[in-house]
Amino acid sequence: MVSDSDNSHMFRKQLSWVLLFLAACIVLQGVGAVFALREAERQVVRGRIASDIHQGFVQLSATKQHLRAWVTQHKIGAGGNPQAREALLNDMQQTLADLGKLAQTASTLRMDRSDGAEQTARQEALRVLGQNVKTLGDTLGQVKTLPADIPARLGWDTLSEVFDTSEGRDLRQLISQSIVRERAAMLRERKAADATLARIRWLWVGMAFSSAILALGATFHFARALRRPIDELARGAHKLRQGRLQHRIPLDGQDEFSDVARSMNAMAAALEMHSQQETEQRHRLELEVRERTSALHEANKSLQQTDTRRRQLLADISHELRTPTTAIRGEAEITLRGGERPAPEYREALQRIVAISRQLGSVIDDLLAMARSDMETLSIVHQTVDFSEPLADALSQASALAGEKNILIDCPSMPKGSVKVMGDAQRLSQLLLLLLDNAVRYSHPQGTVTVRWQQNAEFPPMLTLQVSDQGIGIPAEELHQVFDRHFRGSLARVHRAAGSGLGLPIAKALVLAHGGSLTLQSPADEAQGTGTCVVLQLPLLTRPTLDILPNAEP
User: Which of 96, 309, 381, 518 lies in the 20 to 30 Å Cα band around 366?
Assistant: First the structure.
């Protein structure tokens, strides 16, 4: 008597037995494939060796005929290069050596089906031919050209016996018999290989046909057994997905599908009960949600404002820290480039790196101060500043950046003490570095960045500094947006994908903090229509005695 537990797993057991049987068939096919492959490989090797032995004897006969022709030419004085003779002899010796190895392999593979007679004849032929080749080598080394008054036939008869006879055996007949014997062996092995391949082919056809019949039978059986329960389960699942929780699947058998149907029916009943409870709870929750939505809306506005300020602060930090760190790296790379340098040069490079590091520390302090307050203020220490010092500092740092792109910065020297302004030296250096960095980054390789400055003697006295490049320029319709935060022009995004659009806005803030102005002109070169010119104006402390300082250009 079959128990309910056995009935509930009936379909699984049937499927397991069928899969096990199919797996056994696959394993048998694999074993048969390995056997067939090894047998086919063995037959192919035997056929190849038989063909190589036959070809070797044919080649040996042809080479001997070439050597006979060489002797004839040499005897009658019509040529006969000794190097050609040695090449033919070496070729015959190599062919005999190869035939010896092939014969040994044939003996190992038991290719002789005549109780060893074929192998014995082959070895004997190779031994006689080897002795003949050695004799030919010794004899032909002494062959001389016949005098003109002696018939060629008389000289040839003396060598005919060496070519055609060895140990009392006719070599022509020996080679001919060997060729016939090896051809027969080659045809025999090919026939055996064809027969083996035919057997393997029929074996595989039979196994494939049997597997196909078994697979089709199992497929037909399980298709009939699976169609109705799967259709019922799919129909029930579709109705449950539509929300019709009152539907029940009509499967009451004792197999696995009926178990699944009973589980789905129980789940549908539980879901129906929970759905009713959920409807009641949803009405209560809707009231609470309405009450808290307004509070969350206000909190969300506050969070968005905080997030905007945080993003702006992070953008400022990334932009302000990138330029000094790039300058430090460029200064170090330029110093380490090439061979050893004098100690003063290393000291100067380290001093410049220390100065840039101090500036970096000051920038970090400012960013922290901005984070603590409204993230907009900048601390400016107003004092008398010799403008040549921040200009020289910015040029030193920008040169390291320009060196990476092979860009030249052309700036006339500014005499110390000749231009004085009221402001923060470090902030002015930061401002000039921002302008130079922008010009270098958006210039083409091998280009030039030109810096020109002059003093205006009118009231109020102003210092005008121009930074011009030969780069990509700015379209006229975008000039009014360049000082907006995070704005990057179309050409700038194509030329350099990385960038935050904060360089010029920060420079504008620094200029305004010093009481100056900052404007852009593009194109800088009207004739070529390329480049950008940045014009910086700062108030001077004293009225200059000359409109243009020495060594300066307008």
Answer: 518
How far are the Cα atoms of 329, 401, 402 from residue 335, in angstroms, in the given order?
Answer: 10, 13, 14
Encoded tokens for 505: 């806005």
Query: pTM of whole model > 0.85?
Result: no
DSSP lists the bridge partners of residue 530 as 525
Q: Kindly report, residue by residue over 225-275, the tens digit of the pLDDT.
A: 677 777 777 887 887 777 777 777 777 766 677 777 778 778 877 877 887
Cα(168)–Cα(396) distance, rounded to whole angstroms? 102
SS3 (DSSP) at 423: strand
Q: How far is CA 539 from the centre of its chain?
A: 57
Question: Distance between CA atoms of 244 and 236, rounded to whole angstroms?
Answer: 9
Long-range contacts of 164-167 (CB under 8 A, 24+ apart): 166/128, 166/129, 166/131, 166/132, 166/135, 167/128, 167/131
Task: Measure the CA–CA gap between 470 and 403, rounded to whole angstroms.
Answer: 16
| Distance of alpha carbon 176 from alpha carbon 296, whole angstroms | 107
| Tokens, residue 486 | 């995070």
Which domains are seen in the chain, by residue range?
4-201 (1.20.120), 380-554 (3.30.565.10)
| Residue 386: count of CB within 10 angstroms of its CB | 17
